[in-house]
Design goal:
The chain has about 290 residues and is an alpha/beta fold. The chain folds into three domains: about 50 residues, no CATH class; about 40 residues, no CATH class; about 180 residues, Ribonuclease H-like superfamily/Ribonuclease H (Nucleotidyltransferase, domain 5, 2-Layer Sandwich), CATH 3.30.420. The protein contains ten helices and 13 strands. Strand 4 and strand 5 form a beta hairpin. The chain binds zinc ion. Zinc ion binds next to helix 3.
Length: about 290
Amino acid sequence: MIEYKHWGEVPEHLKSKTSLSKEGFKPNEIRAKVYQRKGRVWIDLYDINEAIPKKKATPKQLAALEKAREKAMESRTCEVCFYVESYQTIEFYNGKRLCRSCYEYEQIKTIIEDARSIFLSWKENDFIIIDTETTGLSLWDEIIEISCLDSKGNLLYDTLVKPTIPIPSDATEIHGITNEDVSSAPTWEKVWKEIEPLLISKKILIYNKDFDISKISHCCSLYNLDLPILDSDCVMQTYADYVGSTRWMSLSNAVGYYIGHRAKNDSYATLELIQRVWDEINDIRGNGDGNV
Ligand SMILES: [Zn+2]
């Protein structure tokens, strides 16, 4: 291999890869090297007479390039609003490619639709609404009042319950039930034995289900009663979904007037809220274009 000490010695027909490329050739075999002081490197040299001419891209190749670019663009474009997203944030929903905001919108629409179906499913079968008042909000707090209402609005059960712990004054401030009020009331053991048969194989609806169910379980465990398996739905969650809210709201806020926290009143208000949603769904159906 010939080695030249500097560019001045290199004959015309020997070229570097870069200068070959500029002249429209691809290199073949290395024929010599030249030392480049700047950078202190040896540069490979090729004979231009042996070099291979670069082919120009055919129209077909150019079209393929254009097509690849279009495809890449398409895979980033929202099918609903045609917004172009980055590859990372494009989402698939029901087989459609969606931008971030269209995706969120579709999700919210689905949640509202699902909540509507749940409200309608309640209409098809009898249910029982339960509400309780308690000594407080913590794990060990107990039920001091329980009310059961059927789907026709008949009050099936409504009683005070004598807890094993005293009612703190801050709880009394909320619902107005005093220790004196419950002093002669039946215990949970007696109450539950009468209520449980009413609930068997019925759909139970509760505004803030998790709270009431946890209170029922706690009170049953105090008396070594079997923990009930109830088929229950939460009206608070379903209502929040139905109105497209990510926040839960109090029953008073949902019905739009102050209720006052007694089990019976809360049960009736829950039924009223459910009936209102049914009415609204009916109105939409009645005035709609038949798609609903
Ligand atoms: Zn979009």
